Amino acid sequence: MAIGIITGSGTYALPEFGEAEALDVATPFGACAVTRGHFGGVEALHLSRHGPGHARLSNHVTHRANIWALKELGAEAVIGCTACGAVDPSLELGSLVVFDDLHFISNRLPDGSLCTFFAEPGDPQRAHWILHGGPFSADVRRALVEASAAAGHPARDRGTYGHVDGPRFNTPAEIAQLAGCGVTAVSQTGGPETVLCGELELPFALVGFVTDYANQVRPGEPTPVETLIELMGRSTAIFADVLRRALPRLEEAAPRPVGTVYRFSPE
Predict the structure, then answer these.
(1) What is the pLDDT of residues 212-265, one digit of tens each?
(2) What percent of the chain stands above pLDDT 70?
(3) Is 33 helix (H, G, I), strand (E, B) or coil?
(4) Is 266's pLDDT higher than 60?
(5) Is pLDDT at 189 greater than 70 in this prediction?
(6) How far apart are the first and last CA of the chain?
(7) Which of 66, 71, 86 shows the shortest CA–CA distance to 6?
(8) Are strands 160-163 and 101-103 parallel, antiparallel or unpaired?
(9) What tens digit of pLDDT does each residue of 13-55 get?
(10) What single string gives the DSSP state of each residue in 42-108?
(11) In the CATH hierarchy, which top-level class contains the domain 2-263?
(12) Three-class secondary structure of residue 124 per DSSP
């Protein structure tokens, strides 16, 4: 069983990723660089959203190619890791959140097109992803929460992830609107990953590492950019600690897809 791992800002490689093999995967949505190997004693597929040196900003990430490549290489579940800004002021900097709901009302990819694999009329695979609750896998979430506690980095269990378009950060009015919708923390890449994994029936969960307070969440106390960058650098080791313990839990009990992918019979 292979587990896909997607990492973001500050984490471009995973420490102690064993038997690493760099792959250039061709997909219908472009090429994708994936590293295959073992992590925590489990077969793993690591994908860096932004690439070495943060070559790709959030508006350059090729989400459909990324998720398609993980599925094609045999991933049976995917974990996303994201540095995020706290909208809930009670979150502590440097803490973890395992999200259980999503605010991604635009449902758009960075190029402005709709976030879906089902773009062609009559496609025999076309479908609606019908949710019966939150969009994240309860099984993958449970593994992350348990692994975080075991690693000594307890995570907040539950929270709404807010996807925002980058590359700019948000205004106070935008953050206040998201807070009014119950958003816990924001970043710029998790929305498409959640939806696209859902459409391919890949169990997915997202864990966030809080690097800053979003604009005016704590009035008069903006997070210094230096603090954000320092915390981003610390996130790699913490994500690795959690992933090293989460992957064996997922290998023991295969997670289930979320919701129902309802396909229409071709005419």
Answers:
(1) 999 999 999 999 999 999 999 999 999 999 999 999 999 998 899 999 999 986
(2) 99
(3) strand
(4) no
(5) yes
(6) 36
(7) 66
(8) parallel
(9) 999 999 999 999 999 999 999 999 999 999 999 999 999 999 9
(10) EEEEEEESS-GGG-S-GGG--HHHHHHHHHHTTEEEEEEEEEEEESSTTSPTT-EEE--EEE-TT-B
(11) alpha beta
(12) coil
Every domain of the chain and the residues it spans: 2-263
Read off the tokens for 139: 């099984």
Cα–Cα separations (whole angstroms), residue 237 to 55, 112, 229, 244:
21, 34, 14, 10
Cα 265 to Cα 78: distance, rounded to the nearest angstrom: 28
Residue 51 to residues 58, 66, 82, 184, 191, Cα–Cα distance (Å): 11, 12, 14, 27, 19
pTM of the full structure: 0.97
213: helix, coil or strand?
Answer: strand
Is residue 1 within 8 A of residue 42, CB to CB? The reply is: yes
Nearest C-alpha neighbor of 204 from the set 27, 24, 5: 5
Q: Phi and psi for 191 in degrees, rounded to 5?
A: -60, -55
**Cβ(203)–Cβ(137) under 8 Å?**
yes
Give the model's pLDDT for residue 121.
Answer: 92
Cα-to-chain-centroid distance, residue 113: 20
